[in-house]
From TrEMBL:
Residues 144-248 form the HTH LytTR-type domain. It comes from the Bacteria. The chain crosses the membrane at residues 7-23, 35-55, 67-88, 108-127. The keyword Transmembrane helix applies. It comes from Flagellimonas spongiicola. The lineage of its organism: Bacteria, Pseudomonadati, Bacteroidota, Flavobacteriia, Flavobacteriales. Keywords: Membrane, Transmembrane, Transmembrane helix. This is LytTR family transcriptional regulator.
Length: 251
């Protein structure tokens, strides 16, 4: 799902809920303006845009393993909790219903029930859309256009062994040799099949089909050794996911 589509969805939710709240609280219409209610609701739901960006970024790195799925779910639950706190904070300072009879902290009791249900529905919707988008992307045949010495090469993802970020370039090791492309690493991370490619460091992505060894270094460090002999260090934050994933892949 594209970010602009999600922003549009959030805007629709905010406007519809604002209109319903204004209509429901008919006794206070002479004290509250519709514009104030709509702006308040946009402010309440806007943080989910940041939540979507975070979930989309984390989704690509976490769904490779069962532990990753649990982490993604936990992150989503934390986001719901944070949004609930934001809703309470904003409403207690900027709600159009603040200090009106029957309201407390700028809200009515039934708000919390509906807001929680909508939060959970949004979370489910985002994760489902992210999973569906990734599955559809992996079904599409993909060729990467790489350049070297003025010549163009067409490479299948399965021919890429590893990718490393080097300043404004990405270095790709393929079965056709090494290529330096003036594209950020995240560009490739978004299009490569996530069931095969794994981010092990903020600057490194590997093709798991070319891994021949996981080597323990000094302390708690971990290195991935590729078929071409290249050794790539695994970032501490990825060590558990990497080891768990390879346990699930081997017989």
């Amino acid at each position: 799902m594209k970010l602009k589509n999600f922003v549009f969805l959030i805007l629709i939710i905010a406007l519809v809920l604002g209109g319903l709240i204004y209509w429901r609280e008919y006794a206070t219409r002479d004290q509250v303006s519709l514009i104030h209610v709509l702006i308040w609701q946009i402010g309440v739901w806007a943080p989910w845009i940041l939540g979507f960006i975070l979930l989309r970024k984390m989704h690509r790195n976490l769904v490779n393993t069962k532990i990753g799925l649990a982490k993604l779910t936990l992150i989503g639950v934390i986001l719901v909790g944070l949004h609930f706190g934001w809703f309470f904070l904003l409403s207690s300072t900027a709600s159009p219903y603040l200090d009106l009879p029957g309201s407390r902290f700028g809200v009515y009791r039934y708000f919390f029930v509906f807001w929680t249900l909508i939060d959970l529905a949004l979370l489910w919707f985002m994760v489902d859309k992210l999973n569906t988008s990734q599955e559809q992307a992996e079904k599409i045949p993909l060729l990467l256009e790489l350049t070297r010495g003025g010549n163009k090469f067409f490479c299948k993802p399965s021919d890429i062994q590893w990718l490393v970020s080097e300043n404004y370039y990405t270095k790709l090791a393929t079965n056709q040799g090494i290529f330096m492309m003036r594209k950020p690493l995240k560009t490739y991370l978004e299009i490569l099949p996530m069931h095969t490619f794994l981010k092990i460091h903020r600057s490194t992505i590997i093709n798991m089909d070319y891994v021949v060894e996981l080597a323990r270094g000094s302390g708690s460090t971990l290195e991935v050794i590729m078929q071409d002999g290249t050794r790539r260090r695994v970032s501490k934050s990825f060590i558990k996911d990497v080891t768990q994933l390879f346990k699930e892949r081997v017989y």
